[in-house]
Specification:
CATH class: Mainly Beta
Protein name: Signal peptidase I
EC number: 3.4.21.89
Distance between the termini: 87 Å
Largest sheet: 8 strands, antiparallel
Pfam families: Peptidase_S26 (PF10502)
Oligomer: single chain
CATH architecture: Ribbon
InterPro entries: LexA/Signal_pep-like_sf (IPR036286), Pept_S26A_signal_pept_1 (IPR000223), Pept_S26A_signal_pept_1_CS (IPR019758), Peptidase_S26 (IPR019533)
Structural class: alpha+beta
Number of domains: 1
Shape: elongated
Number of helices: 3
Strand content: 15-25%
Helix content: 10-25%
Membrane topology: Single-pass type II membrane protein
Length: 234
């Protein structure tokens, strides 16, 4: 073999070696991010419309709530407390390749074990529905919720009336598509009485990253909850 051919072979092997190292490092970084910081989920239903559409992909900050506290207005992903979801037979079944990508954080989690809703009340809050104008109240403060969907002909923010006090370490959650969301209101007969323990929360959704025409930050509507914390202290 000529010297030129040997150099070419050595260059090709070196390129393949470097490429392999880059791929291994990329997979390792992705796995660590998925395990400790950021995780991707897809939206299987219309319960959070119009904020989130069916088949949207979101990124979730896993530092919430263990490092950063969960707050009213946060969109959170949590494990099914039991009985919230439809039968698993309706779940999307990923291929073997998709399972590998999900394991290392390179694909959105499509397992049928998680729920996405908006936090309306945190531990110690009294959440009621509804006032004379059809608004939900938290600690006696009526909420103006610009993100919710209410069908034509309806005026109340919830079809179901309720009056609950959220236990410490738990949250009360509702879907933005209020008349098409199986949320805390509809699970009060379950063992958790409709409350979601903070220990079951995977994290807070902060970015809608797919499809690109839906791309955007998922902020917190702080103005909606103005005065709620102060009212609880009274």
């Amino acid at each position: 073999m000529s010297e030129t051919a040997e150099r070419r072979r050595g260059g090709l092997l070196g390129f393949l070696r470097d490429l392999l190292i880059i791929l291994v490092v990329a997979f390792l970084i992705s796995f660590l991010l998925k395990t400790f910081l950021v995780r991707s989920f897809y939206i299987p239903s219309g319960s959070m419309e119009q904020t989130l559409q069916v088949n949207d992909r979101i990124l979730v900050n896993q530092l919430v709530p263990d490092v950063v506290g969960v707050e009213r207005g946060d969109i959170v992903v949590f494990q099914d407390p039991g009985g919230w979801l439809y039968p698993k037979a309706m779940a999307t079944t990923p291929t073997s390749f998709e399972k590998v990508l999900q394991a290392v954080g390179l694909a959105a989690d499509t397992t049928h074990d998680y729920v996405v809703k908006r936090v309306i009340g945190v531990g110690g809050d009294r959440v009621t529905c509804c006032d004379a104008n059809g608004r939900i109240e938290v600690n006696g403060v009526p909420l103006n919720e610009p993100y919710i969907v209410i069908p034509e002909g309806k005026t109340k923010a919830s079809e179901i009336d309720f009056d609950v006090t959220v236990p410490e370490g738990s949250v009360w959650v509702l879907g933005d598509n209020r008349y098409a969301s199986k949320d805390s209101r509809y699970n009060q007969d379950q063992p958790g009485k409709g409350f979601v323990s903070e220990s079951e929360i995977v994290g807070r959704a902060f970015l809608l990253n797919w499809p690109l025409d839906h791309f955007g930050w998922l902020g917190r509507p702080d103005a909606t909850f103005t005065g709620v914390e102060e009212a609880r202290a009274q």
